[in-house]
């Protein structure tokens, strides 16, 4: 696996984890139980997904992919369009959580975002990243890694650590500490 693709897939893991927690929040019986967490998730996703992850794909991965993988000529613009849709859904989520909080509007945009991001990540992981990875040589991969790392370092110091801590912390606050490892142990015992 090319490291540049692995880094973007790693981003997807963080996004999936936070989106899964958001999904659980939407299932809560009392909307007020996790209002603070919903606001935090909305802000985090706006920052991590739109300003960080999508920017890396659009500025670094997609340009080289358009040169190296001609068969993705129609797919790459679709992915950029998906990014714009995610941005609009994130804006709607953030806009519904201000002074005039509207849980119904938040829930609707969050539900749409969850479905959209899940489908988008699956499309990239299952249909796009493998083709790009096959087309990249080691030198091109190193160039992408360097460019994405420089972007990440300029974005915010230790941003990956901050994102990892946020995703784990919000999961623990909403689902309980070590929720998934406990569920796995329970499944193994059955």
> Whole-number radius of gyration?
18 Å
CATH superfamily: nmb1532 protein domain like
Alpha carbon gap, first and last residue = 35 Å
Task: Enumerate how many helices there are, as a single number.
Answer: 7
Q: Which architecture would the CATH scheme give at its second level?
A: Up-down Bundle
Q: Mind describing the biggest β-sheet?
A: none
Write the layout of secondary structure elements.
Blueprint lengths: L2 H25 L7 H34 L6 H21 L7 H33 L2 H18 L3 H17 L3 H11 L1
Helix pairs in contact: 1-2, 1-4, 1-5, 1-6, 2-3, 2-5, 2-6, 3-4
Overall description:
There is one protein chain. α1 (3-27) packs across α5, α2 (35-68) packs antiparallel against α5 and α3 (75-95) runs antiparallel to α4 (103-135). The protein has helices spanning 3-27, 35-68, 75-95, 103-135, 138-155, 159-175, 179-189. It has one domain: Four Helix Bundle (Hemerythrin (Met), subunit A). 84% of the residues lie in helices and 0% in strands. The protein contains 7 helices and no strands. The mean pLDDT is 90. 27% of the residues are buried. The chain is mostly helical.
State the gist of this model:
With 190 residues, the chain is mainly alpha-helical.
Provide tags for this entry.
190 residues; Four Helix Bundle (Hemerythrin (Met), subunit A)
């Amino acid at each position: 696996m090319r490291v540049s693709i692995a880094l973007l897939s790693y981003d997807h893991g963080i996004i999936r984890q936070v989106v899964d927690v958001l999904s659980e929040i939407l299932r809560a019986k009392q909307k007020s139980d996790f209002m603070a967490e919903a606001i935090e998730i909305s802000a985090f996703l706006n920052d991590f997904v739109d300003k960080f992850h999508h920017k890396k794909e659009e500025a670094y991965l997609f340009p080289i992919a358009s040169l190296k993988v001609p068969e993705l000529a129609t797919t790459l613009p679709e992915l950029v369009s998906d990014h714009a849709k995610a941005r609009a859904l994130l804006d709607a989520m953030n806009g519904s959580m201000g002074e005039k909080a509207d849980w119904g509007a938040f829930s609707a945009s969050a539900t749409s975002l969850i479905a959209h991001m899940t489908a988008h990540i699956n499309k990239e992981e299952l249909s796009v990243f493998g083709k790009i990875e096959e087309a990249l040589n080691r030198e091109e991969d190193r160039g992408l890694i360097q460019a994405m790392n420089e972007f990440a370092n300029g974005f915010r110091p230790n941003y990956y650590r901050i994102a990892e801590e946020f995703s784990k912390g919000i999961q623990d606050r909403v689902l309980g500490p070590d929720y998934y490892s406990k569920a796995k142990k329970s499944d193994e015992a059955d």
